[in-house]
Amino acid sequence: MNLFLYLDRESPVHRLDPRTKIFLLLGSFVAAVLFFQPGPLLALLAVLLLYGAVGRALGNLRRVWFLLLSIALISTVSWSVFARGSTPLVWRVTWEGLRYGIGAAIKIDSMIVSGLIFLSTTRTEEIVLGLIRLRVPYQAAFAFSLAIRMVPTIIGTALAIRMVPTIIGTVVTVAEAQRSRGLDLESGGPVQRLRSHVPLLVPIFLHTLRNTDQLAKALESRGFGAGRERTSYLEIGFHVADAFALILAGLILAMFIAIRFTG
Amino acid sequence: MREVLTMWRHTKMVVLVALTAAVYAAILIPLKGIPLIPGFTEIRPANVVPVVFSLLFGPAGAWGSAFGNLIGDFFGTLGLGSIFGFVGNFFYGLVPYKLWGKMGPLSSGQALDARSTRQLLEYLLVAFLASLSCAVIIAWGVDLFGLVPFGVLAPIITLNNFIAAAILGPFLLWLMYPRAKRWDILWTEIMEPGEISRAPRPWVGAVLMWIGGIGGLVVGVAISTGLHAALPFQFGTGTTGLGVVAGVLPFLLLFFLGCFLA
């Protein structure tokens, strides 16, 4: 099971610089917040789906279809009840409110789809390096990157990304120690087995905390925070395709802005 | 709020940011499938993490909460709301350590593992304001862009945050504090006193934070639901305009000012 959404495929979108994809993501958010009417938002969603198809990222829609459907439903209902309108339909619901709710639903789903395409086509390392190149302080980007790497180890899913072997060792050691004290992890149904894992959490959690000092010392011994300029094994750079993508996205955004302000 | 920036000088604090973020995200992610408002909030027992880790790790808990929430959004809900989620969760992790011991007679003045009724009351108060401020910031942001009504989102986030922090928090805090102290990873032991902001009258900041937080929630919900103009025993008419944004903004500014002064 892959915890993260990244799809390791060959596509023009995969090859783009992560900074380009961050700008495209932000551009899609700007285009989405320009509108409240369903029409232009549906056009934006169509553009995003085309972008996702080029990036061979739409397979991930299967993982979030229920979420997108739920968003559409809840958003439509809540805005229908809350939004002001002059054409009553039923109870507090007006035609204007319903229309506003449908628009909000498409808007939120468009943003989620845009985020999904970004995450499906950009590796975590690329996102972090892109942030550093965009002048996000190295320490903050490092903490973010380290946290992402630690997440699967804490969840206990070893297959997603690189593991920290010491923490896997911790889990195994703690589990063995608890078993030797009579903890039965195998028998019972799913709920019983889930409950029997609870005693493992506290020592694993505390052991991870206890390693904070060692991890900090290990980082400093490797020169963490010593110099201002750092090199990276992973190289990124702007190419012709990036310029083309940014110009195309700029034109599309300009078109949406024109539609918004000229009616 | 100087310590929010100066903490990055300490490698141990950087590691604590990562640790907080990883733990927060790791508990958030498996429960993404049980949404309360799809795309914006779900059942979140992980909400205990920002409050407890804030009290232990100070600004590292604040940054860690912000990063952890963003990482959680990387599992299918990344959107414009993630920006406000980042800011809201930063303050969710900032309020507890900023407010602790600065509420005059309401503060216990005891160590974090005192296990007294007064300390529990102080914990519940800071957890409540942290939950509230996070909710107001996120709900204000998503209402600004017409995504989810303030009147729906703010109360749900407030309750969702507070219930987890109130039920699980005291036990986690009492469990972790003695160990964190023994292992020298409390933020007050890592950072130098000169790196931490010292306000001459922190209670003024605390009062402003309370007024800003509660005022923002009450005014926002009243405008969003139309309650402010409703007749008794009748629903009011809600709004899709900038009423909520304009009404809540002064309270948000008051809250931010309070954070600087506390």
How would you characterize this protein structure?
The complex is a heterodimer of chains A (263) and B (262). Chain A has 263 residues and is an all-alpha fold. Chain A has helices at 12-15, 18-33, 38-54, 61-82, 95-121, 124-133, 138-155, 165-180, 190-210, 212-221, 240-262, and strands spanning 88-90, 93-94. Chain A folds into 2 domains: 12-129 and 236-262, no CATH class; 164-231, no CATH class. Chain B has a single domain (3-261), classed as Arp2/3 complex 21 kDa subunit ARPC3, CATH 1.10.1760. Chain B has a two-stranded antiparallel sheet with strand order 1-2.
- Strand % of chain A is under 5%
Question: pLDDT below 50 for ≥5 consecutive residues: which ranges of chain A?
Answer: 157-168
Shape of chain A: globular
Q: Span from first to last CA of chain A?
A: 47 Å
The run of helices and strands of chain B is: HHEEHHHHHHHH
Gyration radius of chain A, to the nearest Å? Answer: 24 Å
Quote the distance from N terminus to C terminus of chain B. Answer: 8 Å
Biggest interface, chains and residue tallies: A-B, 64 and 61 residues
How many helices of chain B? The count is: 10
Approximate helicity band of chain B: 55-70%
The overall average pLDDT of chain B, rounded, is 87
Order of strands side by side in the largest beta sheet of chain A? 1-2
- Could you say which structural class the secondary elements and strand pairing of chain A correspond to? mainly alpha
Q: What does the largest sheet of chain A look like?
A: 2 strands, antiparallel
What is the number of strand segments of chain B?
2
* CATH architecture designation of chain B: Orthogonal Bundle
- The coarse overall form of chain B would be globular
Measured as a percent range, the helix fraction of chain A is: 55-70%
Assembly level: heterodimer
What is the count of structural domains of chain B?
1
The biggest beta sheet of chain B is recorded as:
2 strands, antiparallel
